DNA sequence: TCTGGGGTCCTAGGACCC
DNA sequence: TCTGGGGTCCTAGGACCC
């Protein structure tokens, strides 16, 4: 049988690149994008990487340095990035229908059966097309498994002379590339496993490839075994074209400031429940369990730490925001303790089932009239909010002044998703 | 002052059953 | 005196990903 061929396409510094598309003057200038609540640095342009600012660090630790170096700072603007991502993915799908959208800025494409001689050319074509039509630069890596394609992509991105494309198919290319990849940079090896492997003398991808996969399973787990096999060109992880249905839906945020008042936390919990219920209905699901959690700041050196969660099962799986808010508030009352300064709360919907009419059984009777009323209400709320904007219609429990809302001080306009924030051309 | 948010999978161990 | 063994299901915790 012929080998499989996977490509990994990854947008370069994706969030920074999105900001640059609408602000061309930022080209060649250092740019960072912050996480929600302006907490951490989650995207860096090449110029920022060159300054030595690491990924994922708290913003405040580098704020002075960033000002001194005149780095342009953005709060995250997920409506913008989500929309740009969709445009990129639509273009990628025209190269092969076998595509797995792996994250907001990455996709695996299956090129099994394509002629090896043509791949390099296809890679360049992908790069040029995406850049021309969206303004986003991407890197393309080809290889025999997903794990190897990740590595090929990394090389394509790092070694500028390759022009953003790297084909890692034959033995020579692998032998040259794998020793350059540190253990911790292999897909599936994280911050706990990397030091363990290094202690065993396994310093890079080439070393890990040479290990006996059965022995590695015994020492670690089946996940490690798969990684070793994938490094050897044996594909164990398939492309998932259709996204599997979600097993849980989670919404949570840190507060913009410390909060101790019950009423404010209740509003935030109601707000999260509303968002989660919206996602639930969008995906055609019902929830069989709702869990609420609250926590104080685990990093605080002065405030006492407390965290807790509580789950409640509705009588029947539900998608009704009002019912879910009631359950959420009951759960919150079980865990809220006076006297703590809370930092974050959230809601998890799980026990998800497809939204089909509940089977009428003798013991589990739903009221069809009530059910119909709820169905209609949810439909109208979703339609109004879709047409006129998020939270046009909302539940009283969400509150009006929302003093707990997250910080977002440097957000760019939603150029592509809000009419009133369209870019003006003089 | 200030440290994101949203997910998945695997394993170990306890409860329970026959 | 002496208390099995195999199987399933569930949950918590740990690891990973972007």
Name a few traits of the molecule.
single chain, 426 residues, alpha+beta, 5-stranded mixed beta sheet, 14 helices, 14 strands, DNA-binding
Brief account:
The chain contains 14 helices and 14 strands.
Task: Please explain how this structure is put together.
This protein is an alpha+beta fold. It is 38% helix and 18% strand. The chain is built from 14 helices and 14 strands. The strands form 4 sheets. A 5-stranded mixed β-sheet has the order 5-6-1-7-8. Strand 5 and strand 6 form a beta hairpin. Helix 4 runs antiparallel to helix 5, helix 10 packs antiparallel against helix 11 and helix 12 packs antiparallel against helix 13. The radius of gyration is 24 Å and the shape is globular. The mean pLDDT is 93.
Order of helices and strands: EHEEHHEHEEHEHEHHHHHEHEEEHEEH
- The CA-CA distance between the termini, in Å, is 59 Å
Strand order of the largest sheet: 5-6-1-7-8
Tell me the β content.
15-25%
Major sheet details:
5 strands, mixed
Helix content: 25-40%
| Number of helical segments with 4 or more residues | 14
Using only C-alpha atoms, the radius of gyration works out to 24 Å
- Oligomeric state of this protein: single chain
Layout of secondary structure:
Elements: E1 6-11, H1 14-21, E2 31-34, E3 41-44, H2 46-50, H3 59-68, E4 72-74, H4 78-92, E5 99-103, E6 106-110, H5 116-134, E7 138-143, H6 146-158, E8 165-167, H7 171-177, H8 193-199, H9 205-209, H10 213-219, H11 222-231, E9 248-259, H12 262-282, E10 285-286, E11 289-296, E12 307-312, H13 321-335, E13 342-350, E14 353-354, H14 368-388
Parallel strand pairs: 2-4, 7-8
Antiparallel strand pairs: 1-6, 1-7, 2-3, 5-6, 9-13, 10-14, 11-12, 11-13
Helix pairs in contact: 4-5, 10-11, 12-13
The structure holds a DNA duplex (18 and 18 nucleotides).
